[in-house]
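Page 47, continued from p. 46.
Same chain as before, 115 aa.
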Amino acid sequence: MAETLSGPLPPYVQIANILRDEISAGVYTSEGKLPTSRELIKRFGVTSQPVNNAIRILRDEGLVTTSQRGAFLSQDEAPNERTHPNGGDLSETVAALAKRVEELEARMSAMERSE
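Result:
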């Protein structure tokens, strides 16, 4: 079943956003290869044009390089060098978020006990 695209943005922008988020999250680490166009067409239930446009956006941003063999993470996006878009190591950001979630869970538990 195809992944549903919805909202006011064109499908190619939505696909680019999804792939960009997955790149930032480290989803594509094995040899840095993104799914093939055919796989993305099937995944999103679209024609080749939105997929090609999405890849073009990522290429123009310098996130991927393309060849006849497909789309690959650019060397700047190597998994060990990923950083948060606002600067800083992504693992530090994740650790800070995890700590904040724990604090919020503790506050919620305390509130539930006081009711």
